[in-house]
Amino acid sequence: MEDGRCRVEALECKECRARYALEARFVCDNCFGPLEVVYDFSGLDAAETRRKIQAGPQSIWRYVDFLPFERQPQTALAAGMTPLIRADRLAERLGIGEVWIKNDAANPTHSFKDRVVTVAMAKARELGYEVVACASTGNLANSVAAHAAAAGLESYVFIPADLEEQKVLATGVYGTHLVAVNGSYDDVNRLCTELSFERDWAFVNVNVRPYYSEGSKTLGYEIAEQLGWELPDRVVVPIASGSLFTKIARGFEEWLEVGLIEGEVPVMNGAQADGCSPVARAFADDKPVCKPVRPDTIAKSLAIGDPADGPYALELARRTGGTIDAVSDEEIRQGIKLLAETTGVFTETAGGVTTAVLKRLAERGDIGPEERVVAVITGEGLKTLDAVRGSFETYEIEPRVSSFTETVEGSPVAA
Ligand SMILES: *Cc1c(COP(=O)(O)O)cnc(C)c1O
Ligand SMILES: [Zn+2]
After folding, report:
1. pTM, to two decimals
2. Do residues 138 and 165 lie in contact, with contact meaning Cβ atoms separated by under 8 Å?
3. Of 286, 283, 285, 328, which is closest to residue 310 (Cα–Cα)?
4. What single DSSP character describes residue 22?
5. Which domains, ranges and CATH numbers included, belong to the chain?
């Protein structure tokens, strides 16, 4: 871009490699395979690119050379540059060497979805759309409604009717058209796919999905940059559609190709909930992801029974020597508490899934003593409060010192 060259080449089918122009299109006409953005990074100078990134904005736009734009779009709400925290107390509890928490709850609407929405919406505007929409498991709803409000675009947000109240409230407040659908996320997604053929709207995760998923690469870039331009040895990532999981690795691969970092792609561990684990089950059975499952889990943000990027997530876990594990709702609750008690980070159920899988890997002896591990925490605990209800006790006292002494300090719990 600096040298006036555009690195974004085309949309390409992930199956048959047919190429298409950079428009609002998401499936291949030949084989119905999914499309993704392809680039030509040849000739990109590593030292110059690194300087440009370091001098760039404190948001995902510092990585604009690796995103599907010819020049940096103007966006009202920024996303990215969230904290990467060294979690020594968590590592100690798990009996492993080095753990880092990438806290993506620290985004404008408190989940990693602000990354994908920022990119999808900027592309939608560039393509001339005036209305944006999405099919959401919760966090995408918050994000699309907020970014549309900031940009002054009309928006339609489709959610399953049984979504957590916190996520419903944190969406409606932005003044979107909020549509609760009596059905699962997969029903919502099917409805939105049909609507995308009938309405001239940009559905961020349907007809502009190839651009949307590019936003997740920035999590990989940030982890490497924040580790001092180094790769971790292992990354633990939650899986819903599998897009985030695969695109974090893609981010690492691109930077290895350009020479911004050295080494090899980390071991990639995917995390799902037992109540919706089509990819983990396929991994365990050493089979392809086939039959859609009907989700039943407290990790609603991961409740996709028919994951679009499931096959690619499986391939990535196998190729990097990783795994895809699934954990129970009880382990998810314990994962939320473990993270909170050892790091001060309160995550939603999806982060409980990630932490519980990290614990599982440690207990199974999968993690070597010298390994540097990053756990990707994708959302905020205040959005799924029911998951921690009843998980601790509160002292109730009268407003007197004696009452405090007796009830609190005299209590066996106080020791
Ligand atoms: C959407 C979401 C994910 C994973 O999304 P993919 O569809 O796999 O890209 C993970 N965590 C949270 C909190 C989410 O909202
Ligand atoms: Zn194809």
Report:
1. 0.96
2. no
3. 283
4. S
5. 84-110+214-388 (3.40.50.1100)
What stretches of 46-199 adopt beta strand conformation (E)?
Answer: 84-86, 98-103, 131-135, 154-160, 177-181
pLDDT the model gives residue 76:
87
Among 43, 42, 39, which residue's Cα sits nearest to residue 64?
Answer: 39
- Torsion angles phi and psi, residue 397, rounded to 5: -135, 165
Ligand 1 site, residue 242, Cβ cutoff 6 A: yes
13 Cα to the center of ligand 2, angstroms: 5
Q: Which listed ligand is nearest to 247 at the C-alpha?
A: 1
pLDDT of residue 413: 55
Residues in the 5 Å CB sphere of ion ligand 2: 13, 15-16, 18, 28, 30-31, 33
Mean pLDDT in residue range 57-78? 92
139 Cβ below 6 A of ligand 1: yes
pLDDT digits (tens, 9 = 90+) for 40-54: 999 899 999 999 999
* pLDDT tens per residue across span 86-122: 999 999 999 999 999 999 999 999 999 999 999 999 9
Which distant-in-sequence residues (6+ apart) come within 8 Å of 226 by Cβ? 84
DSSP H or E stretch at residue 327: strand 324-327
User: Is 111 a pocket residue for ligand 1 (Cβ < 6 Å)?
Assistant: yes
CA angle centred on 204, ends 382 and 327, rounded to 5°: 45
